[in-house]
Amino acid sequence: MRRVSRITIAGVATAALALTASACGGSSSESSGSDSKNLGLALAYDVGGKGDQSFNDAATAGLDKADKEFGYKSTAVEPQDGESDADKVQRLETLAKQGYNPVIGVGYAYAPAVKEAAAKYPKTTFGIVDDEQTKADNVADLVFSEEQASYLAGVAAALSTKSNTVGFIGGVDVPLIHKFEAGFKQGVQDTKKGVTVKSQYLTETAAEGGFSSPDKGESAAEGQIDDGADVVYAAAGLSGQGVIKAANANKIWAIGVDSDQYKQDALKAYKASILTSAMKNVEGAVYELAKSVHDGKPETGVIRGSLSNGGVSLANSNPEFANNAKIQDAIKKASEGIKDGTITVKTS
């Protein structure tokens, strides 16, 4: 079971008081945003929270960079287990009312809440990571071409497998994670014919723990390994830690996601088994949105990270991976093909 909700990073007591005040009354719909000095940016974490060594931690790195550069005292708020959209709306509105700008929902689950809060606080810039359906003059949709980095992960997996069986484990069965699976499968199949890709999703909904349960990830990976997989790629948030643990225990390769998981302290005991990671630059997206607000020119609309602009990439930290000339040549060729349009990567 995950930890109970907590306020982290900075402004701990202040943010907690603000949340309490909002819950006790005082309609925020009457305000269009705080007139006080901008306190910095605010992150509302997705499931898994801070410490997932993946998606949320990448957003935190962007916050830390903005704080250091602009002298902010930003804040980040954990989700609660089983919370509703109304809870998310209240969280975002409280942060906007308190004077944070931008206010960023980390994860597609925040889309309805961002839409509602942005309408009530038109002077505040809101960001939503991994959703591009939220359209408003003060909303930035921070999205990524995850399928492109996943294609490169597929190339690496195909050239690393000895059993000709590799695995994909998705945290939750949703369109966003289908992009990871589709790109990975295509990369494998385009690189080496005859390699089997076994796919599995941990849960149907995020509320069931697909992104926040390392034990589920470990169990799924063990099953795929028992079926012959010797490379397993997980797009499962915190649950991916269990996949990496299982890979290490069975002396096979794991491919990380979102952040460079080879470099994560919490995973250092397993890093020898992390071949590479399919990264998306959530850190950069969060920082750039904060910078745009700081500079008085807030970003809005769809902002997409791709291979061409460095928004997605493949980590090169593991020396065994970086020094494998065959794999590196294949990845370089595939990258060039995606960038010049020779290779069109599927999203489903």
The proportion of strand residues reads: 15-25%
Number of strands: 13
Largest sheet: 7 strands, mixed
Indicate the mean pLDDT: 89
Question: For the CA atoms, what is the radius of gyration?
Answer: 20 Å
The helical percent reads: 40-55%
Regions with pLDDT < 50 over 5+ consecutive residues?
A: 1-36
Could you tell me how far the N terminus lies from the C terminus, measured between alpha carbons in angstroms? 32 Å
Query: Strand order of the main beta sheet, please?
Result: 1-3-2-4-5-6-12
Shape: globular
Figure out the total of helices: 11
* SSE order: EHEHEHEHEEHEHEHEHEEHEEHH
Class inferred from helices and paired strands: alpha/beta
What this model shows, in words?
With 348 residues, this protein is an alpha/beta fold. Helix content is 41%, strand content 18%. The chain contains eleven helices and 13 strands. It has helices at 12-24, 55-70, 85-98, 111-120, 146-160, 175-191, 214-226, 240-249, 282-294, 319-322, 325-340, and strands at 7-8, 42-44, 75-77, 103-105, 126-129, 139-144, 165-172, 196-203, 231-235, 253-258, 274-280, 301-305, 312-314. It has a seven-stranded mixed β-sheet, with helices on both faces. A six-stranded mixed β-sheet has the order 8-7-9-10-11-13, with helices on both faces. Helix 2 runs parallel beside helix 9 (282-294). Residues 1-36 have low confidence and may be disordered.
